[in-house]
Amino acid sequence: TIRSLREQIAIVTQDSILFNDTILYNIAYGKQGASIEDIEKAAKAAYAYDFIRDFPDKFDTTIGELGGRLSGGEKQRICIARALLKNAPILILDEATSSLDTESEMWVQKALENLMKGRTTFVIAHRLSTIAYAHRIIVLSNGQIVEEGGHGELMDKQGKYFKLYQMQFCSNNNNS
């Protein structure tokens, strides 16, 4: 059924879907009836625990409409904690780090590493730093698969992936 399929999948997108409710509720939304211990464990694995503890009301802090009281990186880490708590075997990351500053991306990237362990993960990304460590990268162009392989293999081919990588990472070196 559609419901049983949805139970097998956790999704983290670039647009953090959060509710005007507490941090606790927003994390627990991934698994209704979860214990506070499980929620705290998910928050720690998502590198969200420390900033949550800094709020006067901690997990009982209301985050505002669309998480308005949180930074972009904090919102993403709450969503990652939700996905960790759900513990689904399949994970979809859709541009999960695309709108973050460098520091936030570092924390979110660490949290994503915890989230991806032991799961089948589909990563949709334009930032190649997000996918460089993937076992298998599939490069699409105009809706068609144009290359596939690991990072090293795709770099050796010097095809589309190589060109995209060069544009993203070498242009930064030329500007310094």
Q: Could you tell me how far the N terminus lies from the C terminus, measured between alpha carbons in angstroms? A: 54 Å
Tally of structural domains: 2
What order do the strands of the largest sheet run in, or round the barrel if closed?
A: 1-2-3
The helicity comes to: 40-55%
- Give the helix tally: 8
CATH topology-level fold name of the largest domain: Rossmann fold
Please tell me about this protein's structure.
This protein is of the alpha/beta class. The protein has two domains: 2-129, Rossmann fold; 132-176, no CATH class. Helix content is 45%, strand content 15%. The protein contains eight helices and five strands, in the order αβααααβαβββαα. Strands 1-2-3 form a three-stranded parallel β-sheet. The longest helix has 15 residues, at 72-86. The protein is globular. The model has no long low-confidence stretch (mean pLDDT 86). InterPro entries: ABC_transporter-like_ATP-bd, ABC_transporter-like_CS, P-loop_NTPase, Type_1_exporter.
Index terms:
176 residues, alpha/beta, Rossmann fold, 2 domains, 3-stranded parallel beta sheet, two-stranded antiparallel ribbon, globular
Give a short summary of the structure.
The protein is α/β, with parallel strands linked by helices and 176 residues long.
Give me the secondary-structure topology.
Layout: H1 2-7, E1 9-13, H2 23-28, H3 36-45, H4 49-54, H5 72-86, E2 90-94, H6 102-116, E3 120-124, E4 137-141, E5 144-149, H7 151-157, H8 160-174
Parallel strand pairs: 1-2, 2-3
Antiparallel strand pairs: 4-5
